[in-house]
Design a protein that fits this description.
Length: 564
């Protein structure tokens, strides 16, 4: 078996299993030559196939099992068999003994054809190794879950020992702290684990008796670790250094940026440091360089909404506004729209504060008030750059709003964001900013209000009949027997009951009747009533549909439509 397995190459396996074509393999091999990456990594990075596709093909061709590690609880005695650094190096993790023999160890491997890795484990454990296919992501998550905290703790113990040896009680002697590798390991591990758990933010909070670490996952905060307050000074010094901030300044808020590569993906991390009573609270916002640009189909638009979205984007000029509170996915929607419009024959320029993701072929300007480059002054310069499409990170004041309106009327497509609650309220907000109603009626081509709701974990959500209050919220008739789902919590979703998020939209497309109401200076209610007559679906309606389809829960629906 082993001799035969060595001859098989990943590319041949994937072509045999019809996961990829021979042309795709040749293209990937061409890219791989100069990159120093493995073939599997190139195929996933180029979007030719997925980690699941590769694992399934290997499992089928090699005649081995495939495992989803998030469904398995690995016993303590197996975790102790192999040091974690060996497992990390080979991206593998042993998870059980074979059913018929305690001499055979079953090992989940991201590359089950790696004979050297199997030999390594065989020598360390003195057991035979049976390979089981698994995705790289699930192996790395399992390594984090079982060994991550242990590595951090041993780093902290080493740090404490060093400090005791130095016997330096002076908190301000940073010279050794900064480079002391345990703290470097701690900060790196913290970011790696947050990324693998799909966190959007890391909160490091000094309190009276401890330092609390929380991750924001799918919009909710979860406590992940607590450390001794003695470590806070060193953690904050390390983060300030890699974030390019002033280490000695502890009384003023500071901002910085870090770039870190986690599992071959580049992450852009914005850091904010705020002095509090017990020390500096640090928040790190994680964004993947390529996470903001998604396929339109992944945003959560229903088919009819997708049609409307496309129709609005086909306007040659006008303003498209995406609105909602902070963290409701506005930037993702805008970037997706821009990627869609980003063809060779158009000139797209953006003005942002800060630039959130770099897109090839789009000219992006970073607002810098110190250099007198504000939204308004940047926009004026941009209009001389012969643009077809302009994106404004956010319309904050009358000056920016009026330039945007002028630009759209003079033949440009302008896309931007605003912080308002509903689509109809956006129009009146612009009037409040001092824009004449007749100009708005002429320039706005569409408004999309959006929110994000958490998706129920498909593995553990449980069916239930709605109670009286829920029926009323969902607008169900007494005789309506439809069931809804509630969150439960399992290993796959870390006990939260939710996994991932999906967009909820309210799309107002401009029509002749709406233009008439707006140019007369009609209020938000009047605009909303007319839009509803013309078939607009409110956020509440869209969220209700997701509840009845079993995608989200009633509590999530209430969150997005509380004020509507």
């Amino acid at each position: 078996m082993e001799g035969g397995r060595k001859k098989l190459r990943l590319g041949d396996v994937l072509v045999n299993e019809q996961v990829i074509t021979q042309e795709q393999l040749d293209k990937a091999l061409g890219i791989q030559r100069g990159s120093g990456k493995k073939l599997g990594e190139v195929l996933v990075d180029e979007g030719i196939t997925t980690e699941e596709g590769i694992a399934r093909a290997l499992s089928s061709q090699l005649g081995i099992d495939m495992i989803e590690l998030q469904n398995v609880k690995i016993p303590e005695e197996i975790l102790k068999l192999v040091p974690s650094n060996v497992l990390k190096k080979h991206k593998m993790i042993p998870f059980e003994y074979a059913a018929d023999s305690l001499n055979i160890l079953r090992v989940a491997m991201s590359d089950p054809m790696d004979m050297y890795a199997m030999d390594d484990i065989s020598i360390i454990t003195n057991l035979q190794v049976e390979a089981v296919a698994a995705t790289t992501r699930s192996v790395m998550l399992a390594l984090d879950k079982y060994y991550g905290q242990g590595e951090v703790n041993s780093a902290l113990e080493a740090y404490t020992r060093e400090k005791e040896a130095e016997m330096e009680a002076e908190e301000d002697t940073y010279s050794e702290d900064i480079n002391s590798s345990p703290i470097v390991v701690l900060v790196k591990e913290m970011i790696d684990q947050a990324v693998r758990q799909r966190a959007s933010d890391i909160h490091i909070e000094p309190m009276e008796r401890q330092v609390r670490i929380r991750y924001r996952i799918d919009g909710a905060l979860y406590e992940k670790a607590t450390y001794s307050p003695k470590l806070m000074a060193a953690i904050s010094a390390r983060i300030k250094i890699i974030g390019g901030m002033d280490i000695s300044e502890k009384r003023k808020p500071q901002d910085g940026r870090i770039t870190q590569i986690v599992d071959r993906q580049e992450f852009d991390i914005r850091v904010s440091v705020l002095p509090t009573v017990y020390g500096e609270k640090i928040v790190m916002r994680l964004t993947s360089k390529n996470a903001l640009t998604r396929e339109k189909s992944q945003l959560g638009f229903k088919p009819a909404e997708l049609k409307q979205f496309d129709h609005i984007l086909q306007n040659p000029h006008g303003i498209l506004l995406v609105t909602g509170p902070t963290g409701s996915g506005k930037s993702t929607t805008l970037y997706t729209a821009l990627s869609e419009l980003n063809t060779e024959d158009v000139n797209i320029i953006t003005v942002e504060d800060p630039v959130e993701a770099n897109i090839d072929g789009i000219n992006q300007v970073h607002v810098n008030p110190k250099a007198n480059l504000t939204f308004a002054s940047a926009l004026r310069s941009i209009l001389r750059q012969d643009p077809d499409i302009i994106m404004i990170g956010e319309i904050r004041d009358n000056e920016t709003a009026s330039i945007a309106v002028q630009a759209s009327i003079t033949g440009h497509m302008v896309v931007s964001t605003l912080h308002t609650n509903s689509a109809a309220g956006t129009v009146t907000r612009l009037e409040d900013m001092g824009i004449e109603p007749y100009l708005l009626a002429d320039s706005v081509v569409g408004v999309i209000a959006q929110r994000l709701v958490r998706r129920l974990c498909p593995s553990c959500k449980k069916e239930k009949l709605p109670d009286e209050e829920e029926r009323e919220l969902l607008g169900l008739a007494p005789q309506d027997e439809r069931k809804i789902y509630a969150p439960c919590g399992c290993d796959k979703c870390d006990g939260t009951g939710y996994k991932g998020r999906i967009g909820v939209y309210e799309i107002l497309e401009m029509t002749p009747d709406l233009k008439r109401i707006i140019s007369k200076g009609g209020g938000a209610e009047e605009i909303k009533d007319q839009a509803l007559k013309e078939g607009m679906r409110t956020l509440r309606m869209s969220a209700t549909e997701y509840v009845l389809d079993g995608i989200t829960s009633v509590s999530e629906m209430i969150k997005v439509s509380f004020d509507i």
